Amino acid sequence: MPNQYYLSKETAEQYIKLAKGYDGKFLIDLLKNYLPLKSKVLELGSGPGADLEILSQNYEVTGSDFSQYFLDILKKKKIKNPLILLDAITLKTSKTFDCIYSNKVLQHLTDNQLEQSIQNQLAILNKDGIICHSFWAGNDCYEMKGALHNYHTKDELENCLSPYFETLVLDFYNEMEKDDSILFIGKIHSTKCK
Ligand SMILES: C[S@@+](CC[C@H](N)C(=O)[O-])C[C@H]1O[C@@H](n2cnc3c(N)ncnc32)[C@H](O)[C@@H]1O
Known about the structure:
Layout: H1 9-19, H2 25-31, E1 40-44, H3 50-55, E2 60-65, H4 68-76, E3 83-85, E4 97-103, H5 111-123, E5 125-136, E6 141-144, E7 147-150, H6 154-161, E8 165-173, E9 181-188
Parallel strand pairs: 1-2, 1-4, 2-3, 4-5
Antiparallel strand pairs: 5-9, 6-7, 8-9
S-adenosylmethionine binds at residues 3, 6, 19, 44-48, 50-51, 65-67, 70, 87-89, 103-105, 108.
């Protein structure tokens, strides 16, 4: 099963070291142009919680991850946000949200799983709901240390997401290298609302 990487203490701690100093402030600043303050946000794959803290400065944020290890870390930090154990593919929750946000999470899904995730995101988004997701840019798809890394092009993301979402932002940005990442921000088409 892919994505075991984040489930064990040893490898989750490896990720925490690797991710030190990185956060999604740039993405969240862009999101603020489209998402009203105090909106209800679900973050997928919160990991060690850097973006959860930044998002919480302006929004009512529910953190989530499919790794209990990360959720336990967040609980130890005494974070006040609701936290749920949630798979980004199945999204089994009875709650609904104004926005679903993820930073470098959905690249761990196969193309089919990404399609399933999008269908399930539509089901838990409120009217005029927004998605804001970042991806690694490129054509590679490989498994390393038990995690799938499925890169995407702008065209692939446009084809996958534009049937359901009006594109507000679809652009490259720099994470570690120039244009190594892509941000999609989209607003649910009114015909796709529940
Ligand atoms: C590259 S890390 C990013 C973590 C965090 N968003 C950040 O920016 O540091 C990927 C995160 O996605 C989570 N993840 C991977 N596959 C997932 C899935 N199917 N459902 C929910 N979370 C998942 C991992 O546990 C990990 O926290």
